[in-house]
Specification:
mainly alpha
């Protein structure tokens, strides 16, 4: 409608006369989205031939929702009652938004995978710059495998810290959406994305460490 609170809308009643409706409030993220609410006496005055009600709001406890739905559907099946849970209606309204979120989730996952490759490049450069230091440790008795695990533990901690800080920041950013009723959050795919990024980062870190420590480290110590 491209209208804001305070704007007016023009409607035509059943007699063909035009009347204006002023918007005095808005309901954000509500099951009444897409509906215009006016006083009942004003509606009857302009549409006197309309009788009865077409929509009902039923306040039911969440625990007995299924039983209440079956009872009402069975009792009012002759009038064509259709029951829609509020959570499902909100999920339908947020369908387009959820599609965009899923798309950006996929793109974000690809970005994180590329970032893990970048982490491997940074690790390789860091280890190459520290070959003299690592060669000294090798000369005083450290095993090559121990050096690999030393480098892996250092950068693995950075990887875990980065994922933790990023996940916490994202949680704070989307917390209002998570707490809203009808929120359809793909916890499974989000968790899978984080696990894949963690595994990818660990693999690339290990590959970079192995390549950087390949060869004769003692030559680097002689150069020092």
């Amino acid at each position: 409608m491209r209208k804001r609170v305070g704007d007016t809308l023009e409607y035509t009643d059943e007699r063909g006369r035009t009347f204006k409706v002023r918007l005095v409030g808005a309901l954000a993220n509500s099951i009444l989205q897409g509906n215009l609410l006016i006083a009942e006496d004003e509606f009857v005055q302009r549409f006197p031939s309309q009788s009865g009600y077409r929509m009902f709001l039923i306040d039911a406890p969440s625990k007995g929702l299924h039983e209440i739905s079956e009872t009402l559907s069975r009792a009012l099946r002759d009038v064509g009652l259709e029951l829609t849970p509020a959570s499902r209606r909100l999920a339908a309204f947020n369908g387009v938004l959820n599609t965009y979120l899923s798309t950006f989730q996929v793109l974000g996952g690809l970005g994180l995978l590329l970032g893990s490759v970048g982490l491997g490049v940074v690790v390789m450069r860091n280890v190459l710059e520290r070959r003299g230091e690592l060669a000294l440790l090798l000369a005083v008795g450290f095993r090559r495998r121990a050096l690999k695990w030393l480098v892996m533990s250092e950068h693995g901690a950075l990887l875990l810290l980065g994922l933790g800080v990023g996940a916490l920041s994202a949680l704070v950013a989307v917390l209002p959406a998570l707490l809203s009723p009808g929120a359809d959050v793909p916890y499974g795919s989000l968790g899978l994305t984080l696990v894949v990024v963690l595994i990818s980062g660990a693999v690339w870190t290990w590959v970079a460490t192995a390549l950087a420590l390949k060869g004769r480290l003692l030559d680097a110590l002689r150069n020092e």
